[in-house]
Amino acid sequence: MIMNSSINMKRWLVAYTKPKHEKAVRDQMLKNNFEAYLPLIKAKKKWSDRRKWVDLPLFRSYVFVNIEPANSIYVAKLAGVVRIIRFGTRLAYLQKSDITTIKRMIEGGLNPRNENFFLRGNPVIVEEGPLKGVTGEVVKVKNQKRLLMRIDTLQQSISVNIDQGFLKLIN
């Protein structure tokens, strides 16, 4: 008997969480043996009496989970999860390459930051460095050249400083 492999295939889904519940949701996912990813970035926070480096989510209120789509109901029932992101009635999927690129940006020390979702810009591919092979757009923010990676599923973007010499225009 031939089974529909797309039904039983794991895909990266996006869970939308209550504010400031991302780490707790990720921990619950891991505890329930789901593969979860919460991209964290270091940021310096200031209180009235001290300053401290803390890990903050790159995408506020979003946690990524790699599961079979049929199991999304179990993720949606976890405490702190508001809903699983959908486009209409269809689940919204993130590409594995998007997850890999986000990990490479963070692990490569490139200090990504969340950006507005842009629709314009020249498409480029990175030819050198830790992001070799990654495609994106070049944007100029405060006189800095940055590589912008759009994540259509979230309608958000992240960017990193990049040497323009590493980039090649895609036609």
Description:
The chain is α+β, with helices and mostly antiparallel strands. The chain is built from four helices and 15 strands. It has helices at 5-8, 22-31, 72-76, 96-107; strands at 11-17, 35-37, 40-46, 51-57, 62-67, 81-84, 86-87, 90-91, 93-94, 113-115, 123-126, 135-141, 144-151, 156-161, 167-169. It has a six-stranded antiparallel beta sheet, with helices on one face. Strands 1, 2, 5, 6 and 9 form a five-stranded antiparallel beta sheet that branches. A hairpin with a 4-residue loop joins strand 3 and strand 4. It is globular, with a radius of gyration of 18 Å. It starts with a helix and ends with a strand.
The largest pleated sheet is described as: 6 strands, antiparallel
* Separation of the first and last Cα atoms: 45 Å
The spatial strand order of the largest sheet comes to 10-14-13-12-11-15
State the total count of DSSP E strands. Answer: 15
Residues in helix, %: 10-25%
**Total helical segments:** 4
Q: Structural class per helix/strand content?
A: alpha+beta
Report the average pLDDT across residues: 86
Radius of gyration: 18 Å
**SSE string, helices as H and strands as E:** HEHEEEEHEEEEHEEEEEE
The general outline is globular
Low-confidence stretches: 1-5
Our estimate of the beta-strand percent is 35-45%
